[in-house]
């Protein structure tokens, strides 16, 4: 029973990891690709780790540490990547409506002037 | 259209190759005589729990010294190529890293350095060793440089540390020639209790020296590429 539940949770995690890969292929520009990859792969990683924790309960503490590390680093690194992409003016998809970071930058510039 | 056909063809070829590899694979049931020799000799003779590190640092220690020398030459040539020109300070123009990156680095950096030290110190007990741990430490330095562009690495200190580690490594090797069976023999220190931190003769010491040397070298390379 325990092994079955663990395997199913790992399978769901694998599905999210797969959808992260699919998002990388299907999304139109850098930012949406980063977003798809990060969100889906963070959730997929956590689910795979959780499934392993159900499968082997004696590993749970170590798996929890790995999960916390993934939760800290994965969003942070994609945040840094997309900011860098924004700083070098990577073109956005044509359907983009709002660019909050550019607006914020302009607001701080005007505030300084 | 032709592009699609080519991709399909490539996928089919890869599928064929991998099917052949997967179908022809059968797990080996017995150890080869060489593998059995190493598997018994490393724990008994050297006292190390990790067979790979035992082989890497003692049986083919001279080769490892050569690898370290290659890395040293890479660092030196990068220094010559990139360090000669007058360094323009471009850090002022670059946008400041965001608050999230700065604060996140504060949390993660100690963890990375701790993990690197753990990997270096446990090379003779579990997976890891000087090279891997040194690379982990250098990746921490990379994060530091990215999150705080203003931090200056002390090049002179790093160079001296790295050279000292290399010199002590060679001196340990010559000690092996003098007191034990040959160059880089790890029997110059007592074997200790199997599986504890201070065991396996000189292997942990050499591993730590390798870690310091590799970490310092890669940090210097990263710093060279920054300026």
Short synopsis of the structure:
The complex is a heterodimer of chains A (113) and B (227). Chain A is mostly helical and 113 residues long.
Question: What does this molecule look like?
Answer:
The complex is a heterodimer of chains A (113) and B (227). By secondary structure, chain A is an all-alpha fold. Chain A has one domain. Chain A contains four helices and no strands. Chain A is elongated. Chain B has 227 residues and is mainly alpha-helical. Chain B has one domain. Chain B has eight helices and no strands. In chain B, helix 7 packs antiparallel against helix 8. Chain B is globular, with a radius of gyration of 23 Å. The model of chain B has no long low-confidence stretch (mean pLDDT 80). Chains A and B meet through helix 3 of A and helix 5 of B.
Write the topology of this structure.
The complex is a heterodimer of chains A (113) and B (227).
Chain A: H1 2-26, H2 30-55, H3 60-87, H4 100-112
Helix pairs in contact in A: 1-2, 2-3
Chain B: H1 2-24, H2 33-46, H3 51-59, H4 61-83, H5 99-121, H6 130-147, H7 155-179, H8 203-226
- Helix proportion of residues of chain A, in percent? over 70%
How much of the sequence lies in strands of chain A comes to under 5%
Average of pLDDT of chain B: 80
- Indicate the radius of gyration of chain B in whole angstroms: 23 Å
Mean pLDDT of chain A: 86
Could you describe the largest sheet of chain A, including whether it forms a barrel? Answer: none
């Amino acid at each position: 029973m325990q092994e079955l539940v663990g395997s199913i949770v790992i399978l769901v995690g694998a599905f999210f990891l797969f959808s992260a890969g699919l998002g990388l292929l299907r999304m139109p520009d850098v930012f949406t690709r980063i977003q798809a990859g990060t969100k889906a792969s963070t959730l997929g990683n956590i689910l795979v780790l959780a499934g392993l924790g159900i499968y082997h309960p004696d590993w749970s503490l170590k798996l929890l540490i790995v999960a916390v590390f993934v939760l800290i680093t994965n969003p942070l690194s994609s945040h840094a990547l997309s900011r860098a992409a924004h700083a070098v003016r990577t073109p956005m998809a044509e359907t983009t409506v709002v660019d909050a970071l550019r607006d914020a930058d302009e607001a701080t510039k005007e505030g300084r002037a | 259209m032709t592009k699609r056909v080519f991709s399909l063809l490539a996928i089919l070829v890869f599928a064929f190759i991998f099917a052949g590899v997967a179908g022809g694979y059968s797990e080996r049931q017995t150890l080869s005589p060489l593998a059995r020799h190493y598997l018994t000799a490393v724990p008994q003779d050297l006292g190390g729990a990790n067979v790979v590190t035992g082989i890497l640092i003692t049986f083919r220690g001279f080769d490892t010294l050569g690898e370290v020398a290659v890395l040293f030459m890479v660092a030196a040539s990068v220094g010559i190529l990139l360090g000669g020109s007058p360094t323009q300070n471009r850090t002022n123009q670059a946008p400041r890293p965001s608050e999230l990156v700065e604060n996140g680095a504060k949390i993660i950096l100690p963890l990375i350095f701790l993990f690197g030290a753990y990997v270096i110190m446990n090379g003779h007990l579990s997976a890891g060793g000087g090279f891997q741990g040194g690379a982990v430490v250098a990746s921490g330095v990379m994060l530091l440089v990215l999150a705080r562009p203003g931090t200056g690495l002390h090049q002179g200190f790093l160079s001296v540390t790295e050279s000292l580690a290399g010199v002590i490594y060679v001196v340990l090797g010559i000690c092996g020639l003098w007191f034990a069976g040959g160059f880089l023999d790890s029997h110059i220190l007592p074997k200790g209790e199997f599986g504890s931190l201070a065991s396996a003769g000189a292997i942990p010491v050499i591993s730590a020296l390798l870690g310091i040397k590799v970490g310092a070298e890669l940090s210097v390379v990263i710093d060279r590429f920054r300026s």
